[in-house]
Amino acid sequence: MDRRNFLKKAAAVTVITSLDHKASHAAETAIAHRTLGRSAEKVSMIGIGGYHIGTPSEQDAIRMVRTALDNGVNFLDNCWDYNDGASEERMGKALRDGYRQKAFLMTKIDGRTKAAAAQQLNESLRRLQTDHIDLLQFHEVIRENDPERIFAAGGGMEAVVEAKKQGKIRYIGFTGHKSPDIHYKMLQTAFSHNFHFDAVQMPLNVMDAHYDSFEKKVLPVLVEHGIGVLGMKPMGDKIILNSRTASATECLHYAMNLPTSVVITGCDSMEILNQALNAARTFKPMSKSEVAALLAKTSSAAAKGEFEQYKTTHNFDGTYHNPKWLG
Predict the structure, then answer these.
(1) Could you give the angle at the alpha carbon of 108 between the alpha carbons of 106 and 110, nearest 5°?
(2) Which end is more exposed in the chain, N or C (fewer Cβ atoms within 10 Å of the end residue's Cβ)?
(3) What gap in Å lies between CA 265 and CA 277, rounded to an integer?
(4) Quick one: DSSP state of residue 283?
(5) Dihedral Cα 213, 219, 222, 226, nearest 10 deg
(6) Can you point out the beta strands (E) in the chain?
(7) CB atoms inside a 10 Å sphere around CB 108
(8) Three-class SS state of 14
């Protein structure tokens, strides 16, 4: 073989090896996707919370959303009331230039009446700069009368069902962080109206497992009925980390290990976003002994709900402090 042919073949081998390495690296670092309940939708196992993108500068917030989408995260969380609408406005700007096509976009409304729900939905569509929302959820179902109000004649559900028929939304869900019993009541109210939610969002974390637990009381119902499970507050808005019983990655992995479609986590900096991306890339199903060991570490601290203030205080209840949002 002459020197010229040798060099050509050597160069070809180098290119192929490089491509193989890049493909292997991409496969190793890909963010896994899971099925959303009984739908055919594939959503990333980690989702980006909308509230926290109101913390950094607008430029940084846009960069974070786009970085997440570029790295395989497609589930985006938001809400009509987050940061007085600024969170949706920032996300809408981030979704320009073709990024909307990469996203499974979720937002929430507070309206319990038909009029309030319709108004808030239309405002969200405008802020998010889109003609449809993939998943719309009733936010903060935390009061005993929320289920009745939403499903009543002239209630918020009427507006949402009409919006779905109009193509403004694709799927319907609800969220709440206060009480698993209220979540259960919301589900039973829906069933009594022959309505099945597509997704339900709730706290799922290493503390919840021990105290008034959504994992124990609500999760089995969602799994039984094929309803998409959206885990939130994996670190209790960082408060769980203050207990020094579990690391951020352990908290994220615990929630991912449950039958969740997606675990939504708040990211207020590129550092925290990269932490979430790394946790998703490194996740492996936990053994029963690994789960037991983690729960044993958190048991004592979790006993009274001290690190789950969204359950035990009104600190996280936006609609408690702003009842006019309910309509």
Answers:
(1) 175
(2) N
(3) 10
(4) -
(5) 170
(6) 33-35, 42-44, 46-48, 75-76, 104-109, 133-138, 169-175, 199-203, 228-232, 262-265
(7) 24
(8) helix
